[in-house]
Amino acid sequence: MGKIIVAGIGPGSPSDMTPSVLDAVGKADAVIGYKYYFQFIQDHVKLGCKCVDTGMKKERERAEQAFLLAEDGMTVVVISSGDAGLYGMAPLVYEMAIERRSTIEIETLPGISAYQKAASLLGAPIGHDVCLISLSDLMTPWNVIEKRIKAAAMGDFVTAIYNPKSNGRYWQLYRLQELMLQERVASTPVGYVRQAGRSNEQITLTTLGEMNPEEVDMFTVVIIGNSQSYIDNNRMITPRGYYRNDQNRVDKEQKKGQEIMIQSFRTIRDELQRKDWPLDHLWALLHAVHTTADFDMEHILYTDSHAVELLFNKIKDGTLKTIVTDVTMVTSGIRKGALQRLGIEAKCYLGDPRVAELSAMQNITRTQAGIRLAVEEHPDALYVFGNAPTALMELCELVRRGKARPAGIIAAPVGFVHVCESKHMVKPFKHIPKIIVEGRKGGSNLAATLCNAIMTFDDAEQLRPGRDL
Fold first, then answer.
1. Which of 450, 460, 464, 461 minimizes the C-alpha distance to 304?
2. Which of 102, 124, 199, 228 is the most exposed place for a label (fewest CB within 10 A)?
3. pTM higher than 0.85, yes or no?
4. Which residues have CB under 8 Å from 456's CB, separation 6+?
5. pLDDT of residue 252
């Protein structure tokens, strides 16, 4: 009586075949497999070895042939790409043994799977819990596959996708992308590797929102990161937690406070009702919720299209050099490290001795007087309001009279008198990038954190807040 060895030959590169598999192939009396994969083992078969290669969808015929040859006393190696037990021939061979009531000895030799090889080429994307899903519905109903996709997305698993696309299955990967985006943010890292380990290998790093299914085919493995995954230096990384939990390690770039803030932002993002906010609005929203612990911000935080990005770019190109606040509490909450790093100044005029005199002379509030003085000296500053609606109304009037040309406006005064009206007065200035906390809510801390969101927008894509803590 012979023997059947089901062997995983890895993704294709000779260097990725295990010594035990090479030894088995070299000693086999017969090798059976899909004809495409014989090119990877042909140099290792012994002289006189019977090679049986078949086309696609002939798995059952290959297994039957293996039993017939083994029953004739031959040692038969059935090859599968990757790992034979993962979408491979091993389950079929064992099931057929039960069906045939065969006493043939069966051995399984593991191989490096395609998702493992792809992951190694992408960096370290599967450092935490991972699930594997095949999009082939030849033997699994699509409604079952869809349930698995939703479960993986909701469970925050790193997800490796096999059989993502073929000539006949053109829409399934589009549907997976749609389902994933219902639970994951568009900036979730995605990597895909075509022909991993072979001469025509192709590696792509992108995001869930930007992923183009037309770049993917049946020779491609797609890996979708979880909420902790990020891309750095062209490497996709999903942290396991060792680095974070090493209390003896001093990391200059990732202080403990920043790590807590990163975890908080990820929690907030996952609990938002809407998952597809534009990146710059999302960045401001995460800061707002983090500061207030108020998820109502998702409904009342208004940003002009690309307002955060536009204001950040003005800071970067040097056209925005000054931030003016209505009260000193806002100025205190703006990160000093960010101001210094970017070379900009934040100031409040309430402490200026001219304010009291102007306020008494013209019978206006001190915050109004402060804004009038600020506009005279910094008409093109970013104006930030976290307390005084009268100050915001004063700026609106100065804009209408052509005396103020703000680079942007953050409108977050808080209270019950003239608060809503002051925010309505800002909206018509279409040419000025605006961030508005609508309704009665607001506050100095909220206004300050929105400034911080602007100054750190270059950290938004990787969701790494707190650089200047």
1. 450
2. 199
3. no
4. 283, 338, 465, 467, 468
5. 47
